[in-house]
Design goal:
It contains 7 helices and 8 strands. By secondary structure, it is of the alpha/beta class.
């Protein structure tokens, strides 16, 4: 490793930086390659908003995985973090998540917490959890997709895999957590 690369990866006090967005992308690709999963990478203009990136990739929003990091307060002392994955044309049903965890409160995590746990910046969060403190819950309509699209921990590159392969690799808890589909 060059001195410059070392300087970029290490704080002045010698401690290591948190994993970067690039590390998360590499982790994802390594997982896909080692699992022999059919996948397609799609390069596009940098975009993180679901509707806009779906248009760039050329598919309906219902085929996208929308990934939201939630803070779940089970009781006064217990807070859990959940990565909720729903179809791109739907919203996370916070009441369903609250009931699922018998929680007092469910809301969106603070951006810094979400980025740290998801190991990705907003708009690039994967439907995978690589952090033991981030519980993965996916709506059944996500894993039912023949083609599932999501940003690959980068704003300029997306991935397409089958919902079945996603379920096999990510091993999410499958629960009905998406708002009802609108017609």
């Amino acid at each position: 490793m060059s001195d410059r690369a070392h300087d970029e990866d290490t704080h002045d006090d010698g401690t290591q930086h948190e994993p970067t967005q690039h590390d998360t992308y590499d982790h994802l690709i390594s997982l896909l390659d080692s699992s022999s999963v059919d996948h397609r990478l799609i390069d596009h203009e940098p975009e993180g908003a679901t509707e806009a990136v779906c248009a760039l990739r050329g598919h309906p929003a219902s085929e996208a995985a929308k990934c939201i990091v939630l803070r779940v307060k089970v009781d006064r002392r217990t807070t859990r973090h959940v990565l909720a994955v729903v179809p791109g044309d739907r919203r996370v049903d916070l009441d369903a998540v609250r009931a699922l965890f018998a929680a007092r409160y469910v809301g969106f995590s603070e951006p810094e917490t979400a980025e740290r746990l998801a190991r990705a910046v907003p708009g690039t969060v994967l439907p995978f959890s690589f952090d033991p403190d981030l519980e993965l819950v996916a709506d059944p309509d996500v894993v039912a997709q023949p083609k599932l699209y999501f940003n690959a921990a980068r704003l300029d590159r997306s991935l397409c895999i089958s919902g079945a392969d996603y379920e096999r690799l990510a091993k999410p808890r499958i629960e009905r957590i998406a708002s009802p589909a609108t017609t």
